[in-house]
Each structure stands twice: as structure tokens, then as C-alpha cells.
Amino acid sequence: MNKLSLIPLTAALMAGPAQGEGAIDTLHRLIDGEEVDNAVWIPFELVTPDNIEAYLRRN
Predict the structure, then answer these.
(1) Do you know which SUPFAM superfamilies this protein is assigned to (predicted)?
(2) Contact present, 14 and 54 (Cβ < 8 Å)
(3) Rounded to two decimals, what is the model's pTM?
(4) How many CB atoms lie within 10 A of CB 16?
(5) What pLDDT does 49 receive?
(6) Of 3, 40, 45, 52, which has the fewest beta carbons less than 10 angstroms from its beta carbon?
(7) For residue 24, which of 13, 14, 36 has the smallest C-alpha distance?
(8) How far is CA 37 from CA 30, 33, 40, 59, in A?
């Protein structure tokens, strides 16, 4: 059993490469003078008690 499995979990957002890529892409667009939305939606993975074991096996 992984130690993370012992932590009471309601839900967590797991960051991955998409967060960094989205941030850098938005930064480049700003530097290039392009307009960007006030809110930039970047994909995330919601980890819950129902899927934490699968997440831990992958990572």
C-alpha cells in the first residue's frame, strides 16, 4: 500500500505537463502581442477515492 492511500481524500487536482505547456503557450502569446482570455482553461486530472489506486499505479 502506498502512503498516499492512507491520507483521507475527498478529491485532489493533479498537475501534469499540460499545466506547464498551457502556461508557456499563454506567455508566448502575450509576449507576441496576442490577446488572451482573462481565464485560460488548462486540463487537469481529478483524483478521487474511486480512482486513486489507478492513479498511483500509473505514477
Answers:
(1) Periplasmic binding protein-like I
(2) no
(3) 0.53
(4) 12
(5) 83
(6) 3
(7) 36
(8) 10, 13, 6, 32
3-state secondary structure of 57: helix
Q: What is the Cα–Cα distance from 51 to 34, expressed in whole angstroms? A: 39
Cell of residue 44, nine digits: 487537469
What single letter denotes the amino acid at residue 41? Answer: W
pLDDT tens readout for residues 20-45: 888 899 999 999 999 999 888 887 88
Q: Is the C-alpha dihedral spanning 22, 56, 50, 6 positive or negative?
A: negative
DSSP string, 4-37: GGGS--S-EEEP-HHHHHHHHHHHHHHHTT----
Q: Is the pLDDT of residue 13 over 60?
A: yes
